[in-house]
Design a protein that fits this description.
The complex is a heterodimer of chains A (158) and B (135). Chain A contains 7 helices and 9 strands. Chain A is α/β, with parallel strands linked by helices and 158 residues long. Chain A is globular. With 135 residues, chain B is an alpha/beta fold. Chain B has one domain: Rossmann fold, CATH 3.40.50. Chain B is built from 6 helices and 4 strands; from the N terminus they run E-H-E-H-E-H-E-H-H-H. Chain B has a 4-stranded parallel beta sheet with strand order 2-1-3-4, sandwiched between helices. In chain B, helix 3 links the parallel strand 3 and strand 4. Chain B starts with a strand and ends with a helix. Classes of the chains: A alpha/beta (158), B alpha/beta (135). Chains A and B meet through helix 3 of A and helix 2 and helix 3 of B.
C-alpha cells in the first residue's frame, strides 16, 4: 500500500499541495485522475508545470487513471493521488482499488452545495459518494493542510 | 509612457500590498491592477475577476504572479489562453514590479527577458557579498 494520500481538491496542484503536502508525504509522483484536464492538452501542461521540478506528474482520464492507480498501489514508490471530486474516489474504490483514507481538502461552494467545513462544500451526489465510501471501509476526512486537525466527514454529515 | 497594462495576481492581500508599496516608492501608478485570491474564492470566481481586470484581450498585458504552481498563477496561466497579448512572469518581487511599472518599452521577448533578469538579480546572498568585501 503505497498510495501515500488520496486527496480530493478541485484546484488539483496548487500552493498548499506543493508547499505542504508533497513535503509531508515525501512523494515524488503525483497521479491526477481527471477527465477534463486529461482531455485538454493546454490544461494538462499548466497543471504539470505547477508541480516542482523533480516531481513526476501523470494526468489521466478516469478509465486509464483507475488502472494506473491500481498498479501503483502495489508498487513500492510513494504516490500522491489527486482528483477533483469524491465521485472519482468512489469510482476507484468500486473498481477494487483499496485505500483506507480519503482526504478532502478543497471543494468549492456553489448553488445547491452544502457547506461542510471551511472551504469545503459538497453537492448531494458528492455527499452520497462520501457516505458510500465510508460504508465500504474508507474513512473520509476533511483536512486542508497536513498540520490541520482532521475533521471526520461523519461528524459533519448531519 | 508604458506600453502595456500590468496585473499582479497573488494570494490573499499580497497583490494589493505590492501595488500600494510600489506606489509608495514610485508615486501613483497608471494601469496597474491587483487581483488577490481570497480564501472563499474558487478557481472559477478568481478567473472571472482576473479576466475582468485584464481588460481588452487585444491589449498588451503583463501578468506577475506570486508563486509558480499556486492557484493565482495556475488560473492566470489558464486565462492567457484567452489573452493572446499577455505575458506571464511568476515569482513577483518588488524589484521586478518597479522595473515593470517604470518601463517605457513595448512588451516583447527582449524586454520580458530583461524584466525576468531584474527580478532574479534582486535575490542575492547579501551577507556573503558583504563578507567577500571585508579585507
Amino acid at each position: 500500500m503505497t498510495l501515500k494520500l488520496v486527496r480530493v481538491d478541485d484546484r488539483l496542484i496548487h500552493g498548499q499541495v506543493v508547499a505542504i503536502w508533497l513535503k509531508a508525504l515525501n512523494a515524488r509522483r503525483i497521479v491526477i485522475v481527471d477527465d477534463r484536464t486529461a482531455r485538454d492538452e493546454f490544461l494538462r501542461e499548466v497543471i504539470t508545470l505547477a508541480a516542482p521540478s523533480g516531481v513526476d506528474v501523470e494526468v489521466l482520464d478516469l478509465a486509464s487513471g483507475t488502472e494506473r492507480v491500481r498498479a501503483l498501489a502495489v508498487n513500492s514508490e510513494p504516490v500522491f493521488v489527486l482528483m477533483r471530486s469524491p465521485l472519482v474516489a468512489l469510482h476507484l474504490r468500486e473498481a477494487g482499488v483499496e485505500f483506507p483514507l480519503l482526504n478532502v481538502g478543497g471543494l468549492g461552494a456553489g448553488p445547491s452545495r452544502k457547506p461542510l467545513y471551511r472551504n469545503i462544500s459538497a453537492s448531494p451526489d458528492e455527499m452520497a459518494a462520501m457516505r458510500q465510501l465510508e460504508s465500504m471501509g474508507t474513512t473520509v476526512e476533511l483536512r486542508i493542510v497536513e498540520n490541520d486537525r482532521p475533521v471526520a466527514f461523519k461528524s459533519v454529515d448531519k | 509612457m508604458r506600453g502595456f497594462r500590468i496585473l499582479v495576481a497573488a494570494h490573499g492581500d499580497l497583490a494589493d500590498a505590492f501595488l500600494a508599496t510600489a506606489e509608495m516608492i514610485c508615486g501613483q501608478l497608471e494601469d496597474v491592477h491587483a487581483v488577490g485570491l481570497l480564501p472563499a474564492d474558487s478557481p472559477e470566481s478568481y478567473s472571472e475577476r482576473l479576466l475582468a481586470a485584464a481588460g481588452d484581450p487585444g491589449d498588451s498585458l503583463l501578468i506577475l504572479t506570486d508563486l509558480a504552481g499556486g492557484t493565482p498563477h495556475n488560473v492566470a496561466l489558464v486565462a492567457t489562453r484567452r489573452l493572446p497579448k499577455a505575458v506571464l512572469i511568476s515569482g513577483v518581487n518588488l524589484a521586478v514590479l518597479i522595473e515593470a511599472v517604470t518601463s517605457t518599452d513595448a512588451l516583447d521577448g527582449e524586454s520580458v527577458e530583461r524584466l525576468v533578469a531584474s527580478g532574479r538579480e534582486a535575490l542575492v546572498n547579501a551577507s556573503q557579498m558583504l563578507a567577500a568585501r571585508q579585507p
